[in-house]
Amino acid sequence: MVDVDVLPPDTRQTLEKLEKADIIVGIPSYNNSRTVAHVVRAVSAGLSKHFPDRRSVIVNSDGGSKDGTPQAVLQTQLETESLLLVRHPIHPIHRISTPYHGLPGKGSAFRTIFLVTRQLGAQACAVVDADLRSITPDWVDLLVRPVLEHNFDYVAPYYRRHKYDGTITNSMVYPLTRALYGTRVRQPIGGEFGLSAKMVERLLSKDVWETDVARYGVDIWMTTTALAERFRVCQVFLGAKIHDPKDPGADLTAMLVQVVGSLFGLMEEHEKVWKNIHGSVPAPLYGFPYTVGLEPVKVNPERIRSAFQHGVRDLASVYQSFLPPELAGELERLAGVPAEEFELRDEVWAALIYEFAAAFHHRKLDRTHLLQSLTPLYLGWVGSFVGRTAEASDDDAEQRIERLCLAYEQLKPRLIDRWEAK
C-alpha cells in the first residue's frame, strides 16, 4: 500500500485544513506554463457550472517545471463572474500545486493526485492533460458525472481525431486491447479519464509505483486494469483533442517501446482473463457526438516507406529468428514492391503483432531489442494505411480501423496457440 507520506509536508497540511472534498480534478504538468492557465480556467468553469453544490479541488501535480507552471496554476484569474450560471457555487473551488515525488513521469504525477483523492475522501477524480488547447468546461461534467450519478468506475475519452493522428493507438493499442479484453474502448491511452474512489483505491493498492508504470505506460495500465478486473467502464465524447501531434513517420521508437512493452507485459499479468474472452462489445458512450474541425496531420510517405524497406533488410536475421517463414517472406516481398503496390494486409499485420507478443512472452530475444525491431514494421503499417486512405474521409478511415480490429479478433486463437507453445 502506498503511504500518504509520499505527499510533501506542506501539501499534507493544506489537505488537513480542507478536510473533505467531493471531486478532485488533477492536472499533471511539466513545463506547461503556456497552456496550463487555460486548462485551469476551463476546469474551474466546469466545476462551477455543473457541480455548484459539490466541494471541489483542482490539484496540479508538477514534475519540477522550470518555466513557472505551478505559479501559473495558482495565479490564474478564474473570471467566474463572466459565466452565465443557473446556480452559483456554494463552496469555493480550491487549487493546490504540489511537486510529486518518486520516479519522473506521468505515473508518479497520477499517484500524487490519487493520494489527494483518498486523503480528502472524494467520490470522483478526473485527470486532464496540462497542454490541452481544446478543453471546454463541459469536459469536466462528462468525465465526472458518469461516476457520481451512473456508478461507473472508469471513464475513458472518445475523441474525433484526424485519420493520421494516433497511429500507434489505431494500429496496435486499440485493436489489441479490444481483442484481448472484449470491450471496445476507442482511446485506451487518451490522456483524460474519470475514476471512482473505488478505482482510485484499487490502483493505489498495486505495487507498481516504483516501476516503469511511474515513468510511462500509466494510461494503458489503468485502462487494462479497469477492463481485466471488470470495473464498470464507459466512454464520453469530448469532441476534438487538439494538441501537438507528430508526424507518424518521425522517430517514435521510444514511445512505441514504452507503450507496446506495457501492453505485452500486462498480457502476462492478466493471461487467465484474456484467454477466455471471444469477440468484443462496445463500452457505453455518453455525450453528444458531433462533427468537429480537425487539424491535419502531415505525413511523409516516402520517408515512411524508406524506413520500412531499410529496416526489413537490416533486421532480416532478427525477424527470421522468431517469425514463421510465411510472415518473414511476406515482409521481404513487401520491402521490394513499388509504392503503388504496397499493402500490408490486416490479417498479416495482426499476425505479426501476435508473433511479437508471443516472442516477448517467451523471451525469444532481448525484450527491448525485440520491441525496437517492431518500429520499421509499424512504419510499414502507417505507409500502407496512408496509401489506402489518401482520398478517404476520416469516417471512411475509421471503418478501415474497424476491419483491422475484426482481423485481430478473428486471429486471436493464433495468439493463444503461439503464447502457449513451448
Descriptive account of the structure:
The protein has 422 residues and is α/β, with parallel strands linked by helices. The protein folds into 2 domains: 280 residues, Spore Coat Polysaccharide Biosynthesis Protein SpsA, Chain A, CATH 3.90.550.10; 120 residues, no CATH class. It is 51% helix and 12% strand. The chain has 19 helices and 10 strands. It has an 8-stranded mixed beta sheet with strand order 3-2-1-4-7-5-8-10, sandwiched between helices. The protein has a two-stranded parallel ribbon with strand order 6-9. α3 links the parallel β2 and β3. It starts with 8 loop residues before the first helix and ends with a helix. About 2% of the residues have low confidence.
What are the main properties of this structure?
422 residues; alpha/beta; Spore Coat Polysaccharide Biosynthesis Protein SpsA, Chain A; 2 domains
User: Outline, from the CA principal axes?
Assistant: globular
Percent in helix: 40-55%
- Write the CATH homologous superfamily of the largest domain: Spore Coat Polysaccharide Biosynthesis Protein SpsA, Chain A
Instruction: Please tell me how large the radius of gyration is.
Output: 22 Å
Q: Biggest sheet: strands side by side, in what order?
A: 3-2-1-4-7-5-8-10
Oligomer: single chain
Q: How many domains make up the 3D coordinates?
A: 2
Kindly estimate the percentage of residues that lie in beta strands according to DSSP: 5-15%
Question: How would a textbook summarize the main sheet?
Answer: 8 strands, mixed
CATH class of the largest domain, please? Alpha Beta
Question: Could you say which structural class the secondary elements and strand pairing correspond to?
Answer: alpha/beta
Mean pLDDT across residues: 90
- Determine the CATH topology of the largest domain: Spore Coat Polysaccharide Biosynthesis Protein SpsA, Chain A
Low-pLDDT segments, ≥5 res: 245-251
Provide a count of the helices.
19
Number of strands: 10
CATH architectural group of the largest domain: Alpha-Beta Complex
N to C succession of SSEs? HEHEHEHEHEHEEHHHEHHEEHHHHHHHH
Distance between the termini: 36 Å
